[in-house]
Structure formats: structure tokens, C-alpha cells
Amino acid sequence: MNSGALKRAKREVRRAVLEDRDALPPGARAEWGERIAERFAELPEVRDANTVMLFSSFGSEVPTEPLIERLRDRGVTVALPRIEDGDLVPVAFVPGDPVRPTPFGAVEPIDPHALDPASIDVIGVPGVAFDRLGRRIGYGGGYYDRFLRDGTAFRIGIAFSIQVIDGRLPSGSFDLPVHAIVTEEGTIRPIEETSVSEGP
Questions:
Q1: Is there a contact between 103 and 141 (Cβ–Cβ < 8 Å)?
Q2: Please, what's the largest Cα pairwise distance for the chain?
Q3: Can you list the domains of the chain with their CATH numbers?
Q4: Could you tell me the pTM of the whole model?
């Protein structure tokens, strides 16, 4: 598939999945977000982590505030990304720290002191759609594709179950799969096996 066809295919998937996600009732998103936070926090890779990078949720995304609070209460260093010159920079974040809005609706920390990406043990990865092989379609900016490629952190997709597609998502050679996907229904570990577990 050439680059133009790949972009068109991803755009169509993005449109369809966002339409479904946006239609979820706010109450369901909140309830499922709590369930996802609990499941994510209990994964063995997360329980062993000292530093976890998450993201500031916006719109109809899985709300990440409950997970940030849960990890902070455990003593884990939580980082949020800031965009600098087209790249993601991880910045330590504590709820209540000053933030600023981004053009796409999320917020980012304004603390000037960035973390060393090599210090991050786990990254909670946002996305519009995932498949059971760990492939991901984001919002089209390429920020995470570039950031994840240079790191060694354990990558966990955070999504509602309706965002996990049966079959294969369109993917290019530069697209990096996640190691696990956490939804309100279970944890998918596509790199090890194509399966869903009801526990962490």
C-alpha cells in the first residue's frame, strides 16, 4: 500500500471509530475509565514501575485522571507529554501543577524541567483505534510514533473496547505496535498472544 492509500485507509478508520467513541454516554465513559484505571494499575509491568508516562485525556477519550491519581497515591512518578518543536517531551506531573491548553484540546505541563525518556518504565499510549496484533492508529500527528521508536518502555494502549478492531489495521513500516491494550473488558497482550484476559 503506497503512502497516499495508507493515509486514506487510516483516515477512514479514524472517522468511523471516533464516531462510535463520541456516541458513548458520558456516564459509561466515566465508569469504564475507572475500570480501565484499576486494571492498568494492577498490571505487573506497572506495579514494578517507578515512572509511568500517561496523557492528558480530552473529548471522548478514556479519562486518565483516575489513573494519574491512583499511580501518584502509590508513589509512582507520573509524566505527561509536552510538545516541543514537533516532538513529545516527558514532564513530571502532579495533579494541581500548572498546565496550558494545546491546540487539539488536551493540556500539557509547563514545568520547564523535562525527564530523561530513558527513565520511563511504562507508557500509556493514546489512540483512536487498535487491533489485536497491537497495531495503532492515532490522530495523525505522528508524535507518538516518533517518541516510542527511540525508547525501551513497556507500551500499553489505553482504549474502550469499541476502539479495538477485529482484523488488521492499515499499518506502515514506521508504525510501532504496543505491548498490551487495556480496555474496560480486559487486557490484550498481542505481542505474546492474541488473547484477552479478564484480570490484570
A1: no
A2: 47
A3: 3-197 (3.40.50.10420)
A4: 0.91
